[in-house]
Amino acid sequence: MRKRHHFKTQCSSSLRPQGTKPSFKMPFLLLFMMLSACAASPQDLSGKMFTFPQETNTARVMLNTSADNLSAVTVCLRSFTDLSRDHSLFSLATPSSDNGFLIFKGNSDKISLYVDNKQVDYLGLGYELNVWHSICSTWDVESGLGQMWLNGKSSPRKFLGGSRISQPIVILGQEQDSYGGRFDAKQSFIGMISDVHMWDYVLSPCEIQSYVDNLNFTPGNVLNWRALTFDVIGRVLIENRLLTCH
């Protein structure tokens, strides 16, 4: 597979003043070094969030993973939205499976987990609109079991099966209907997403609770919100996390 380079929008846009045409007088090697340095620098997003302000089939954030072959997965994130329609919260695709690992919110009190294009639904977890939710999903290839956690409340463990996850493309804001593409605006996310972490093993219930309570937890070793390499495409904002006053 051709190696993908993800350049953060903030970095690439800073290479020349806005409103000016690109100059090709700069030596190509120097330009390549600047872009490579920009792409290679993880960003600490502690206290930040991605804001997706409108329904589109383009706006998204591509996350650069540190592993290409996974036999187990835990994904945790926090989200805030008023969407009652279907929408994607976390979309991972592989060359053989557009729903390699997908966390998908349905139009009722249902959260679905897809692994290798197989789906299970979790009901009755108490999903509400216009509040921050902490959502975690786990799966491992040995047992084939998946589980969903909402704000520390766990679902039953359900069988998904599936095979190892290789060469993943991870996208926030859109749901991949092909490997890295074919987005549907009616499944896009509108709202805020923060604190995205991904591990190559199944977290214990205590570790998940530590994440939910924002206590001292081990950050993700595949995706780490405190050291994230990503590429913003379209109208997505990076803002300070909005906290509720008490």
Automatic annotation (TrEMBL):
GO molecular-function term, one example from the UniProt record: metal ion binding
Compartment list: Secreted
Co-factor: note: Binds 2 calcium ions per subunit.
InterPro entries referenced in this protein's UniProt entry, alphabetically: ConA-like_dom_sf (IPR013320), Pentraxin_domain (IPR051005), PTX_dom (IPR001759)
CC cofactor: Ca(2+)
PROSITE patterns found in the cross-reference section: PTX_2
SUPFAM superfamilies attached to this UniProt entry: Concanavalin A-like lectins/glucanases
Pfam family, one: Pentaxin
Keyword check for Secreted: yes
Keywords: Calcium, Disulfide bond, Metal-binding, Secreted, Signal
UniProt similarity note: Belongs to the pentraxin family.
Name of protein: Pentraxin family member
Organism for this UniProt entry: Cyprinodon variegatus (Sheepshead minnow)
Lineage of source species: Eukaryota, Metazoa, Chordata, Craniata, Vertebrata
